[in-house]
Design brief:
This protein has two helices and twelve strands. By secondary structure, the chain is mainly β. The structure holds calcium ion (3 copies).
């Protein structure tokens, strides 16, 4: 198998902590343990409260161990640079569907956070993808759309650690990979 730098870092951290299971919630998720694979940046046509789900972030685990992502913040560049208390333009993962408490991402598993809402709420697909719904406020961004269509950055932040980010500076499509 391919040994990644992040896997080595993670393994070292796990050994240092004497762990055999998941990286504990008290530790920040290590840099590189998660990877953003796709961002929905712009809903086709007008950006309205009803089509907020066309804005989304998909990320996967690159870790060789289950990783506790409880408290992970998925946020745009405005939120990332705003250290004051605020509730706009970010989503905090405190639970995953099917788990009694906390949020532990298994090896190779994927999460998609949609900015809109869904009847029935969060769920896990048959193929094992967690789908979470941030239900952004209409007063945040443009009718709840928070990822700038032309240029922005999505950040995955755990405590003080920026685990991964993805930027774009174009306006030529609806998603960025
Ligand atoms: Ca947008
Ligand atoms: Ca649009
Ligand atoms: Ca933004």
């Amino acid at each position: 198998m391919r040994i990644t730098k992040s896997a080595i870092v993670l393994s070292t951290a796990a050994l240092a902590a004497g762990l055999v299971g998941a990286i504990p919630a008290s530790a920040d998720v290590p840099i590189g343990a998660l990877q953003i694979v796709e961002v929905g940046t712009d809903a086709m046509g007008s950006d309205t409260f009803a089509n907020r789900n066309r804005e989304f972030v998909t990320f996967k685990s690159n870790s060789r161990l289950p990783v506790d992502i409880t408290g992970l913040v998925v946020q745009d560049n405005w939120s990332h640079g705003n250290s004051g208390p605020h509730t706009c333009n970010k989503y905090v993962i405190n639970a995953l569907p099917g788990q009694a408490s906390g949020a532990v991402l298994g090896v190779g598993e994927t999460v998609t956070v949609f900015n809109g809402a869904r009847v029935g709420g969060n769920y896990k697909t048959a193929s094992g993808e967690y789908r979470l719904f941030a239900d952004s406020d209409v007063d945040c961004g443009t009718a709840g759309h928070v990822f700038n269509n032309d240029a922005d950055t999505v950040w995955l932040t755990s405590g003080v650690t920026d685990v991964h980010s993805k930027s774009w500076d174009w306006n030529g499509g609806y998603t960025v990979k």
